[in-house]
Predict the structure.
Amino acid sequence: MSLIVMVMKIKNVEAVVVYSPEPSIASAPSSLIVKIKTDEGLTGIGEGCTHGERNEASFAAKAIIEKGFKPLLKGRNPLEIQKIWYDLYYYSEWYGRRGVALYALSAVDIALWDLAGKILHQPIYNLMGGKFRDKIRVYASLIFNMDDPESSGREGKKYVDQGYTAVKYGWGETREKAFGLDADRDEETVRVIREVLGPKVDLMVDVGRMVNWTLPYAVMMAKRLKKYNIYWLEEPLPQDAIDSYVALTRQSDVWIAAGEGEYTRWGFKDWILRHAVDVLQPDVSKAGGLSEVKRIVDLAYMWNMMVVPHGFSTAINVAANLQLVATMPNASLLEFRRTESPLINKLVKKPFKAVNGYLEIPEGDGLGIEVDEDVIEEYRVDQ
């Protein structure tokens, strides 16, 4: 085994755009899957959560990987994960550091960790220092149906009946019918959902990216929703409005959550040092991969901040998040997308299933999953 590890090299890198039509544009119909293959026949799988409505971001990230990163990766030792991360980050610095270039880097990094686990026959959490837990409490992550709040409530209650203790609703099905456009309607929607779910279920409200509230409006809505005992209010403000987030977090009696749109430890530094939110939500498939998000959560731990990783794309994202939270000393909760999508329910041969509201940490090599290549091909999009 040691001789094989010493001589193993990266032979090929492939980036595949996948697209699954969804009832809501908030449901991340487009993603990028990356496969890194070695000369010994092993393959690591990663994902970049591009969230494009028309595949534009996925194809941009694919071009970065196949035209820019691939020549830098071929022939490299796949175990040089940190060295490769810095090489790719600084190679793409002129056009990168944030956005699409980080989606590409995240996908490559996750694939390298998966590959390392397969080479060394270890789950990623062992390669990152060991696990603190065997399972993690998850919340069912859903989309608001603003036309029928009772239907939204019943959808969440279905998961409560399965043993889930937390449910989140977000965004809305279209920009024209989004949560966040009308204060009275929004409050009534939350009231109805709380009534259907009952008083003991943790209920999160995700304003999302279809609307941007002002600071005074967000303060007012936090006060109005507090009576329904919501667990947190997520992304009520523009993603770059860190000063407003600091002010809102200080004024609100409801926990404020954000961070899915931020990148790298440098981007998260001010959010952490200023305690801009109560709950930080980095995404391993956007913020720089497992390598970088591990650095982010370790930094947050130093400042005693709660971190609940974001994840609303494919089963690869779920697998990577599970490996991450296994290594976190104080992880207590994880997002688990429950909207219907083949990229969640069919992409891996053994789909993730919560038991009494918990997901078990996979113990297999690497990410601990086996992807279904037929599903990738079925939803593959070629430009």
Summary: Residues 126-371 form a domain with the TIM Barrel fold (CATH 3.20.20.120).
